[in-house]
Amino acid sequence: MGSISKLSHPCPASSLSSTFNNPKASNPKCLIGLLTTSNNTFTSKLSSSKLSLRSKPSLRASLIVRCAQGEGNGSPTKKTYLHELYDKEGQSPWYDNLCRPVTDLLPLIASGVRGVTSNPAIFQKAISTSNAYNDQFRELIQSGKDIETAYWELVVKDIQDASKLFESIYDQTDAADGYVSVEVSPRLADDTEGTVEAAKWLHKVVSRPNVYIKIPATAPCIPSIKEVIANGISVNVTLIFSLSRYEAVIDAYLDGLEASGLNDLSRVTSVASFFVSRVDTLIDKLLEKIGTPEALDLRGKAAVAQATLAYQLYQKKFSGPRWEALVKKGAKKQRLLWASTSVKNPAYPDTLYVAPLIGPDTVSTMPDQALQAFLDHGTVSRTIDSNVSEAEGIYSALEHLGIDWSYVGDQLEIEGVDSFKKSFDSLLDTLQEKANSLKLMASLSAIGSPHRPLTSSAGISRTPARRGPHSLLPPEAEKVPDSGAGGGSTDVVHRRKMLLSSIGVVAAAFCNKEAALASQFADMPALRGKDYGKSKMSYPDYTETESGLQYKDLRAGNGPKPKVGDTVVVDWDGYTIGYYGRIFEARNKTKGGSFEGDDKAFFKFRVGSQEVIPAFEEAITGMSLGGVRRIIVPPELGYPDNDYNKSGPKPTTFSGQRALDFVLGNQGLIDKTLLFDIELIKIIPN
Predict the structure, then answer these.
(1) Are 357 and 304 in contact (CB under 8 A)?
(2) Contact at 8 Å (CB) between 563 and 607?
(3) In this structure, are residues 114 and 94 in contact, taking their beta carbons and an 8 Å threshold?
(4) Which residues contact 435 (CB under 8 A, 6 or more apart)?
């Protein structure tokens, strides 16, 4: 079968048509309540520049959505800073993330989010760290689909489902907003014709008016942009890092509109994704190599300065006779979209790449970190053209110091394309491993007795437990014994690395005649409907304490145990075990590996201080240093008042907080049992 990466025709597999031609419409209901809550004079001028934002406001302990009062004599209207961003300044806030269930986007839409962007890295993280895709993937593989076809079917479903949620915004704004973006294969970044064919194919199979096909702004793809626009397909042009390339993107859009032959251009729209924070990341390194006071003072200023000048270019290009002729046919401006808005340098303010870039007819797409920060303490005012002269001065000063903007743009483009290719290839490798496991286990189950329960070495029947989002493996994959006494690196058990060798694990299980279909967290017994609240689940292969905590040690530690007053450093993952096994914390660090790095990279608390939920503290006090323990936490040992802000551990990402809050704050019959994996990394004596 032809790969979508190198298509010779629009549709790589006719088998996909039946899946996508008649997508099932869904009407999700929001069950989550949104709580509102180079001379001395010039150098001196740069030092006091308003574009330099050095103080970093502290992020509050919880996500607080600030409220604005509605104008007039009526009752107050709850609005967030995101609503104000659009209503007052004409900038559309979008969310730079997408995963299942897409209904998790509903509270964000209610808080003012007006669109969604995705990319290969986002899907790599979503699919490889979540079990929400496993059922569909299993069906695709069992039906004979190859890996890349299966990948695109997973992606297209997410895009279709998400676009449905934004349809009303799209309709209300007459196709100006409410878009969801999906990117062509990053392997096509140097393939002009391949990109055009892939864009046509994606447009056809997604079959939604409010979907942008993302095309990278590489030199080979500039002609692709014109061709795709000329075919009446709306485009999100991504990976723009320089003013010169941005101007080429605008010209491609205008050329495409003119070549389309359409009398009504109102439904052919586009955004140009101008990347911000990565510019500072690269230029800051160059400035530090120069090392002069003038150079060091320009750190953290390049990205916003260039973005400010990009807006000036936008205003210039979308004016004049050529543009006015297109406006008469209904053409809409190709809006500037600020991408890469999360802060990479923790010394910079967490809204550095949002607050200074507010202006009309623009989009700001924000990942979790930036979105949470702006919702909490953002300020809404037009800033994009308030410091143009300073931006020009900074841009020129960097050139005088030897910074080559063309080099910066080219280098960042290479890095961006390479990063997306690696994410794409990594995900396909992960899916291939899962597919191989499924095929091998299907063969093994046909050999043995498919209904025989798993047994321990003592012959006692036990219920298998779900082991994580990659878990298509038998329980033996995680129960790897220490390699012997004496310590050292040889007895370090890399629990998660076992997941990277699924074929070998399954083969080993076959040799031991203990192979069985692996269960999932989502498949663990949970209380449902009328049974909820009447009893609790008990898992045979876990030890239950007097408090009701259930645990099992995935690895026994060989060090001391913490005492009251000691500070412990831990790594942890969390799942809503009673509600479809949703991940609310998955740090993707190897449990059981050697500890490296700063304590700040991990969660720490003082034993006996009631800083964490009762179950977490009970589990830690019974562990030895280096141990890895899995615990099942009933609601009474979990978060007080079903509020993760009152006691740790707290999810570190916005999406994780939403997933946990959905379960804890839900008033329906939802089992609030949680599962944690905890590794005791370090003990700091009192």
Answers:
(1) yes
(2) yes
(3) yes
(4) 137, 141, 147, 150
Q: Is the pLDDT of residue 665 over 90?
A: no
Q: Sheet harboring 270-275: ordered strands across? A: 91-95, 362-366, 335-339, 270-275, 235-240, 211-216, 180-183
Q: What is the pLDDT of residue 460?
A: 29
Torsion angle, alpha carbons of 221, 318, 119, 302, to 10:
100
Q: Alpha-carbon dihedral of residues 350, 356, 362, 365, nearest 10 degrees?
A: -10
The reply to whether the predicted model has a pTM over 0.85 is no
Q: Which residues pair with 272 in a beta bridge?
A: 237, 336
Q: What tokens were used for 70?
A: 């509605």
Tokens matching residue 521: 């967290």
How far is it, in rounded angstroms, from Cα 639 to Cα 661?
A: 11
- Quick one: tokens of 453? 């329960």
214 included as an active-site residue = yes
Is 644 within 8 Å of 651 (Cβ atoms)?
yes
pLDDT tens-place string over residues 38-60: 334 333 333 434 343 433 333 33
φ/ψ of 95, rounded to 5, equals -110, 125
Residues 315, 311: Cα–Cα separation, whole Å: 6
If we measure between CA atoms, which residue out of 178, 171, 227 comes closest to residue 198? 227
SS3 93: strand
- Residues in the chain, overall count: 686
Whether the CB-CB separation of 654 and 369 falls below 8 Å is answered with yes
Which pLDDT value is given to residue 543?
A: 92
Strands 582-585 and 628-633: unpaired
Phi, psi of 45 (to 5 degrees): -65, -40
Q: Which of 27, 182, 39 is nearest to 106 (CA)?
A: 27
Structure tokens at 667: 């008033």
Nearest to residue 502, comparing CAs of 436, 590, 448?
436
Map residue 234 onto helix, strand or coil: coil
For residue 386, what is the DSSP state?
Answer: S
Q: What is the DSSP string of 415-449?
A: HHHHHHHHHHHHHHHHHHHHHHHHHHHHHHHHHS-
Provide the residue type at 208 as one letter.
R
Q: What is the C-alpha separation between 50 and 391, in angstroms, rounded?
A: 10
What SS3 class is residue 471? coil
Q: Counting Cβ atoms within 10 Å, is residue 511 exposed (0-12), middle (13-18) or buried (19+)?
A: exposed
Q: What is the mean pLDDT of the chain?
A: 78
Please tell me the distance from the alpha carbon of residue 523 to that of residue 468, in angstroms, as a whole number: 11
As given in the structure block, the two tokens for residue 3 are: 């790969």
- Tens of pLDDT along 580-637? 677 888 764 433 333 333 445 688 999 999 999 999 999 999 999 999 999 999 989 9
* 353: nearest Cα among 406, 411, 278: 278
Q: 177 by DSSP, 3-state: which? A: coil
Choosing from 78, 79, 157, 214, the catalytic residue is: 214
